[in-house]
Amino acid sequence: MALCPKCKVVVSRNESSTQCSTCKNVLHIKCANMNSDSIDYMKSNGIAFDCEDCTKKLKQKRDDCTPVKPTPQTQGIHFNKITIDSDINIIVSKLDDVLKNQITTNNTLTTLSNKIRGLEKTLKEKEKRACFIEISGVKKDNNENVETLVNDIASKIDIDLNLFDIENAYRKPSRLNSEMPQIVVEFSSKRKRDEFLKKRGKI
């Protein structure tokens, strides 16, 4: 039998108790603020029990310990941290350069894209102009239909025009020649326009 240091009562053999691994005192489990399940768990898992007084003393010793001076190993760890920070800064700087290059590339692509669209527009305009002809010397009739007039001219030079061959036909306003202003014809294809020009000598 042993005397419980907490309640100062003898711990009998038939009472549940536990022993401090440091001071070796035996305590009632209630005085140790534990229960049977906790004691069984600690025993089965090899966990040592320290009483409240010993726990306080151990904590005090840890608090009173003088900090250990940095060893070469710990200095190396600190140095590695600095190196990592430096590497991160280098990576961030490189990423910034990549982003700047990407922005420059995007701007260049935008500029090239605009130029391509401009060239395409110019090409379409040239192709469109290539389908135009101007007919002069045809007297104007106030009630005329210009497309019908162009079809009549085409039939005289043996050119068969259908509804889809002419995109547009109109008189070009002119103050100098108000009686016979030029007729502008826009063909749907350059081939039909060239055919018209080839046979215009028959008019």
UniProtKB/TrEMBL annotation:
Gene3D superfamilies linked: Zinc/RING finger domain, C3HC4 (zinc finger)
BP terms from Gene Ontology: proteolysis
Recorded superkingdom: Eukaryota
Gene Ontology MF, one: peptidase activity
InterPro entries attached to this UniProt entry: Znf_FYVE_PHD, Znf_RING/FYVE/PHD
Entry keyword set: Hydrolase, Protease
Keyword Iron-sulfur on entry: no
Name under which the protein is recorded: Sentrin-specific protease-like
Organism per entry: Aphis craccivora
